[in-house]
Fold this protein.
Amino acid sequence: MTDKNPNWILSALALYEKPLLRYGARLLGSSEGARDIVQETFLELCKVKRASVESHLAPWLFRVCRNRALDVRRKDKRMQPLSEAQDLKIESPDDSPHAIMEKSQDAENLLGMVKKLPESQQEIVFLRFQSGLSYKEIAEVTGRTVSNVGVLIHTAVKTIRDNMMRSGDEPNALEGAL
Amino acid sequence: MMFKDEDPRLTAYILDELSPEDAAEVAALLAADADALEFVDSMKETTQALAASLQNTDFDSDIGEMRRMRIAKAAESASKQSAKRLALYAIPFVAAAAVLALVVLSKDGSQAEHVVTQASSNSSAEANRETFGRRGNRAPAGEMESSTGLDSSKVKSGLLGVFALHGRRGTGTAAASVDNEVNGDTGNRADAYRPSVPAAEPTNGLDAQTRRQMESLGYYGGEDLPIQQIQPPPEPVAESSFVHVVKDPLSTFSIDVDTASYSQMRRSVMGGWLPNPGQVRIEEMLNYFSYDYASANTSAPFGVIGEVAQAPWNSKHKLVRIGIKAKDIEDGRRRRANLVFLLDVSGSMNNADKLPLIKKSFGMLLDALEPEDRIAIVVYAGASGLALPSTAVAKRGRILNALRRLQSGGSTNGGAGIELAYKIAQDNFIEGGVNRVILATDGDFNVGTVAREDLVQLIENKAKQDVFLTVLGVGMSSHGDTTMETLADKGNGNYAYIDTLNEAKKVLVDQLQGTLVTVAKDVKLQVEFNPKRVAEYRLIGYENRRLANKDFRDDTKDAGEIGAGHRVTALYEIVPVSEESGPELRYQKTNRQSTAAADSDELLTIKIRYKEPTGTKSKLFSVAVADANTSFSSASVDFRFASAVAAFGMVLRHSRYKGDSSFAQIESWADKARGSDLFGYRAEFVRIVRRAKGLQR
C-alpha cells in the first residue's frame, strides 16, 4: 500500500516525455534546452508526494515545465521564443520541431497563422490542440481562469477561421487536404 | 440564447468543455439558428484542422538516456525516502487504510472519485494558492478546487495518449491519497509547485537531508548553478611502495596503453617548465615508446616477455621488465570502421593548437581510412548537434567540407554530445567491425545537468555493446585530465594527448590499427613472486590501475584494452632475498610451504587474463621469468631505455625511490639505448631530458 514503487514516475515520463519536450522546445526555441527543463520537471516530480499530483498530473507537469522555461527565458534574454535560435541550426533535422512542422504545406500555413496570434493565445492553442489539455488543465498550467482560457481559445480559433476564409481557403476545402 | 460569434461557449461546445446545461442551451440555439450552425461548423473544421496540423508532427526528440537514468535514480531514492517516512506514521496509516477500503468497496466509479478528490483537494488547493499568490495571478479558490474533477472530453479526445493514466484513476488515486494522508506536510508540495525556487534555499521547506540527497545526485535547483561542471579532484596518485613478498606474493593491475602523460610532459618541458608531479604517469611515459617485443606466436592475441637485470639507480635492486605486444593486423584485413568524431567546438577550443589542429589531424586520418569506412561528426558546445551524418569515407569532399565549416563558439555541454555520438554510432553499427566514438576536447568538459557518474555509466554501458571510446586531448588546460582518462578507461578505449601535427600523425595514422582496433579487452596482469628469491617488490607507475588480487579472476571487473600492434611495458623494482633483506623471524617461517618451483631459478610468474574483443569469458596464460644475474650495462637496449624513461618519471615526480637517478644519468642511459629508433622518438626523449636538466634550479 505504500508508495515504494518509483515506477509511477517512470510511467509518467514515458507518457509525457514527448508532449513536454515539444512544449518546452516551442517555449524555448531549442530542443536541447527543452531536454534540460523536462529533466528538471521530472526531478521535481520525484520530490513531491504522488497523491498530491496524480489527480492532476498533466497540468502539474506542464506547469512546472512552463515555469522552468520562463525562468530560462528571463535569464537568457538573447533566446527569442518561437524563433529559430542559433543553436537549432546544428540540430539534427529530425530533431527540430520547426523542420518537422514545415513538412506539410497546409500545416505550414496554419502554423504560420497560429504564430501570428498574440503569444497568450498561441500558448493556449498549443496546450489545447497539441498537448490535448482541457480548459481546466490549461487554466492550471497558465494560472488563468477557466473562462479566460475559453475566451482566448475562442478568439484564437475565430481569428484563424477568419484568416482561412479571407485567404479564399474555405474550411471545407481544407478538410479534404488534411 | 442569442447567437453572437464572440461567445466563447460556442468553441467550448465544439471542444466538449461545457456543462450539460450550457451544452443543451447551445444545441438548442444551433437547432434554431442557421447562421449559428454555419458558424459553429466552420469553427469546428478550424479546430479539427488545428489539432491535425499541430499533432501531425512526428516529433522525434527524446530526453536522452542519461537524463532518463538520472530521473530513474532520483525516483528510486525518493521512494526509499517515502517508505522510511511511512514507517514513522504507522498509526495514521491504519486510519487511512480505512478510507481506502471505503473507496474500493464503492462500486460507483464517480462516487469513488469524489471521495478521493475530497481527500486530496485541501492540500492541492493550498499548493495552488501558494503558487498563484507568488505569481500575482491568483485564481479563485473555488475554481481551482473543482479542477481535480475528471472531464469526459479528455478521455474522448485522447489526443496524445496523454490521458491513459486517467483510466486507472479509481484505485490508483485512492492508494495514492493514502500516502498523502499519511505524510501531510504541505511544505514540500507547495515548494515543488514552484520549481524555480532554488532547492538550496533554506527556507523553502526542503529538509537538509533531501537537499543533501539532491546535491549528491548532482542536482542543484539554484539558478546560479544551472550547469554542473566536472571538476576532477586534483589528487596526485601516491606512488606504490615496496611490498613484502611474504605478506603479499601477488601483484595485480590492469594494463594501460594511454600515452597522454608523455606528450603533456613533453609540451611542458619544451615550453620551459617542469611538469606538475601529479600529472606524471610513468606507465603512460613507458608506453609511449615502441619496444621490440616478439609478436604473438600462439593463439593468444599478444606475446609476453619478461627480462631481469640490475636496476640502474640502485645496484642492490633488480628491475623486471614485462613486455606485451599485441599482434599486428595486416592493413588490408582491418575490419570496416564506423567512426563518430565528437568534437568540442566550445569557445575555449579556438586556439590554433586545439580545433584547427584537430581538424587537420582528422584530415590525415581520413587519408588513412578505407573508402568504405564511415565517418560522422557530432559537435558540442552550447547545444550539441550532428554536423555530418554517417558518411562513407569515399565521399571525402563532403566530410572535408563539414570539417571546414566547424567553428568554435559557445559553452560546452559534452554530455548531450556524447549521447548523440553514441546514438549515431549505434544507428550505423557495423557487426564485427570497428565501432568507435572519437572524442576530441581540451578537457574543459561539463556535462550539462547530467551527473558525472551517469556519464561514466553510459560510456560503460555502450562499451558493453561494443561501441568503444577514444579520447584525444588537446591544448594546455590540464584540469580535465583525470576525467578524460576515466572516460577512456570506462569506454574500453585509449586516451592520447595531441600537441602537434606530428603527434596527431603518430596517434591517428602510424598507430591507426592500435587506436582503432582492439585485439583484447579487460586485460589484467598478475605477477606472482617467488618468495625464495624475492624479498620485496614495487610496481613502478600504474598507480591508478591497481586491482585487488581477487579481481584478477572476476570477469565482471573492467580492465584495460589493447589495440593491434600496441606494446605495453611494466617495470617492477625488486629487492632480492639476501642476508640484509630483513630481520630473521623467530616465531614464523618466512615462507610457509614452498613448492618445487620455488627452488628453481624462477623469480616470478606473469599471469595474464584477457577477453576477446567481443567475448565475455576471460582466457588465461602465464609465463615464468628466471633471473640470469644480468648487469644493467649488458641488458637489452629496450630494457635500458625503458629504465631511463621510468627513472625520468620518478625524478619528475620527486619519487623517494629514484635512488641515484638524475637528469644527467638518465640522459646518458637513454642516449646509449636509442637502438634503431625508426621514428626518432627516442632521440626526442634524450633532447627532452637534456632540456629538463637545463630547467633544473
In short: Chain B touches chain A through 120 residues (CB under 8 Å). The domain at 336-490 of chain B is CATH 3.40.50.410 (Rossmann fold). Confidence is low (pLDDT under 50) at residues 89-234 of chain B. Chain B has four domains: 8-53, 76-194, 243-329+519-578+603-695, 336-490.
